[in-house]
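The following block was generated as part of the benchmark described in Methods. Ligand: adenosine-5'-triphosphate.
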Amino acid sequence: MSKIISLCKRRGFIFPSSEIYGGFGSGYDFGSLGVEMKNNIKKAWWDEMTKKQENIVGLDAAILMSPKVWQASGHLTAGFADELVECKSCHKRFKADEVKGKICPECGGELTKPRKFNLMMKTLVGPVEEEAATTYLRAETCQGIYVNFENILNSMRLKIPFGVAQIGKSFRNEITPGDFIYRTREFEQMEMQWFCHPKQAKKYFDFWKKERIKWYQNLGIKKENLRIREVAATERAHYAKQQIDIEYKFPFGWKEIEGIHNRGDWDLSNHSKYSGKDLRCFNEETKEKYFPYIIETSAGADRSFLAFFCDAYQEIPGGRTKTTKPTKEVEVLLKLDKKIAPIKVTVLPLVRNKFELVKKAKEVYQLLKPHFVCQYDELGSIGRRYRRQDEIGTIFCLTVDFESLKQDDLTIRNRDTMQQERVKIKDLIEVLKEKLED
Ligand code: ATP
């Protein structure tokens, strides 16, 4: 993990938040490459849900909602509080189910009995503090979908079953943030809520379980690093009738990256009760009035980011190219899927002290820039530059060499095979588009 964290910082994927002030809690900022990569993950998820799958529409709800929403959802009462124990000596808190025995794992002090601790982040809304209303930063994006259920159903003329997809920030006052961006207090979720007849809930639960695992695999995550964990009734979220976690084998162990929940009618029936608005559906044919069940797929954009990154990270001792004098250097290859990789193409003049080469390479860069996320790099030897690009997962390096000046072409180097082919500059955009497509 320490190598991954340092690569993330050095190459502009992820920085610690407020670093010049000594950092802030478990916050992180996504750098220039990080934001490209995270956007790619979110786009791949959005396209999967709203384009590939049937009958799913989007939503972007507000982060601040009426506090009544959180009463109805159960977040302010029973459910959304972790059982915690505190060390009487160093005052560190731990999740009760994570410590065995009564001794503090940090300092050996005595632990308190477990107590509840609410994870919702409070804030004040209104300009005058004394009169301001207390509300909360949302702890999950899905409540925005439930309270808009009727709006979406009517405005989009939908029929059960259908889904609503949303990507956005959520906030939880986690007691034990850590493992880099794995557990933070501010994070992004990619959630899809599938509304269906109660009798079909089991069928759709199984359907979405398969689809979601496939999504990670199609984007390059190795099969052996993914598994499904059935969550026992005693461990489930307060709203869940059935729950599985999709887990990834991180360097710090098998951990959840996505939860799939059968939320039953918990949400719509509670929002009906608390708001006084009947959110039941009516089936014209059977004359049945019922609360649809909700199957939820809830993924973390940050946790998926970390899983994609860890899975793609490879170290090659001695380097990737065979030379007569073997180097001892370890080379890093970030074998990200072409959809996820932040930089698709980098343009390199073979050497930088030849004016014509640099001029031509810059022209190619300008040509490609509007079409692909693209870099230009002229610093250092060509081998060193290829390694720099391999380390950030760039799919293709385009090298302008002396031949290019005569032939109006260049070489395309494939990151994974290191094979090079010559392509005419006039055909470049089309060739690259084709290569970068599915
Ligand atoms: P955990 O048991 O790890 O606390 P959870 O079961 O509470 O997670 P859910 O409420 O099911 O998580 O949230 C769905 C997804 O949102 C998780 O699978 C994860 O990807 C993401 N997520 C939840 N909490 C965090 C967090 N603190 N930091 C980053 N991502 C998170």
